[in-house]
């Protein structure tokens, strides 16, 4: 897990972009998902990507919404809602949201809006 925590978000971001674009989604939608989960606006998000912060640093400054607790399901063979380590849970919640976006789920549902 430590290796994942210390990985740069900017290393993984292009993989997220490739995944969602292959499925016909846009970078703007990806950024909206990441912004919703972290509380970063677009400028702040892209500044963090340019500065190559780690996932540990990225989520340390994030303001994860209470609605994130509604992110459930399996990712990498593990139920997201059962992950006890807060940083690991946040990273897997992000992975789950990006998977939902790539699978064509409407953005409003991905963002847990009523």
Low-confidence stretches: none
For this structure, what is the CATH homologous superfamily? uncharacterized protein sp1917 domain
CATH class: Mainly Alpha
**How does the overall form come out from the CA principal axes?**
globular
Reading the helices and strands in chain order gives HHHHHEEHH
Please tell me the CATH architecture by its name: Orthogonal Bundle
Tally of separate helices: 7
Distance between the termini: 33 Å
Largest sheet: number of strands, sense, barrel closure: 2 strands, antiparallel
Let me know the average pLDDT. Answer: 95
| Structure summary, number of beta strands | 2
Notes on the structure:
By secondary structure, this protein is mainly alpha-helical. It has one domain (2-106): Helicase, Ruva Protein, domain 3 (Orthogonal Bundle). It has helices at residues 2-5, 9-22, 27-38, 42-50, 55-60, 86-102, 107-110, and strands at 74-75, 78-79. A two-stranded antiparallel ribbon has the order 1-2. Helix 2 runs parallel beside helix 6 (86-102) and helix 3 (27-38) packs antiparallel against helix 6 (86-102). The termini are far apart. The mean pLDDT is 95.
Pick out its properties:
about 110 residues; mainly alpha; Helicase, Ruva Protein, domain 3; two-stranded antiparallel ribbon; 2 strands; about 60% helix; globular
Characterize this entry briefly:
This protein is mainly alpha-helical and 114 residues long.
Question: Topology of this protein?
Answer:
Elements: H1 2-5, H2 9-22, H3 27-38, H4 42-50, H5 55-60, E1 74-75, E2 78-79, H6 86-102, H7 107-110
Antiparallel strand pairs: 1-2
Helix pairs in contact: 2-6, 3-6
């Amino acid at each position: 897990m430590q290796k994942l925590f210390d990985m740069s978000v900017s290393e993984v971001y292009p993989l997220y972009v490739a995944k969602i674009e292959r499925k016909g989604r846009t970078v703007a939608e990806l950024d909206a998902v990441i912004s919703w989960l972290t509380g970063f606006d677009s400028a702040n998000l892209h500044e963090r990507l340019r500065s190559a912060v780690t996932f540990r640093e990225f989520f340390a400054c994030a303001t994860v919404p209470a609605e994130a607790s509604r992110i459930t399901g399996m990712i990498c063979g593990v139920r997201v809602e059962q992950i006890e380590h807060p940083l690991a849970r946040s990273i897997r919640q992000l992975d789950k949201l990006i998977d939902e976006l790539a699978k064509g789920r409407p953005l409003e549902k991905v963002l847990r809006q009523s």
